[in-house]
Design goal:
The protein is of the alpha/beta class and 223 residues long. 28% of the residues lie in helices and 26% in strands. It has two domains: 1-70 and 155-223, Rossmann fold (3-Layer(aba) Sandwich); 81-153, no CATH class. Strand 6, helix 5 and strand 7 form a beta-alpha-beta unit. It comes from Miniphocaeibacter halophilus.
Length: 223
Amino acid sequence: MEKSIVLENLNFGYDKKILNNINLEITRGEFIGIVGPNGAGKSTLLKIIIGQLKPNSGRVKILENNGKDKSIGYLKQMNIEVGVSFPITPLEIVMLNLYNQMGLMKVPNKKIKNMALNALSMVNLQEKAYYNYNNMSGGEQQRVLIAKELVKNSNILIFDEPTAGIDQDSKELLFNILDHLNKKHNITIIIVTHELEFSKKYFNRILKLENGELKDYSEVNIW
């Protein structure tokens, strides 16, 4: 099986050790759930994987995808706002991640727009491409932000509590879309969640982080 992410002897902490000798291999196309008590270091672990934090020791290896550029999409906790009060559309938000492909004048051409529309179609929002993002539900906003990461051809998606603040129907729809992306496009997905009872059916594996240690539960039905 082709590896996607490898963590080797990761240690991290400030005055107190948060992560203690973490070792993990994630196979390409896995759908991983990470659980654990508040303050266990789950968000810290994600930030180390994406490179926002450096471990005190150990290393993270993000492996290439058959010659394709490696790309990680990351949605941080409670990130359902884009921080603007003026009208902006889902299409415009997704195109923000195509800025470097827009040429000298930075004006989106037909190809750029089609790439963004395709990403929105992957999260079932193509028909709302020109809606006002600020008037959309929390679940729809979250899906727009997923499309924003997909348009980069991300082969790894990492989420920190993606269902926080959205209703149950939106949670189910979000996970169904992620499950489809995982199965159809072989995208590796890692999710930190507190809602294991509802979401465990989607995961290949569940990892529990507690007291600085990461335990791997390969059989999700033990929960």
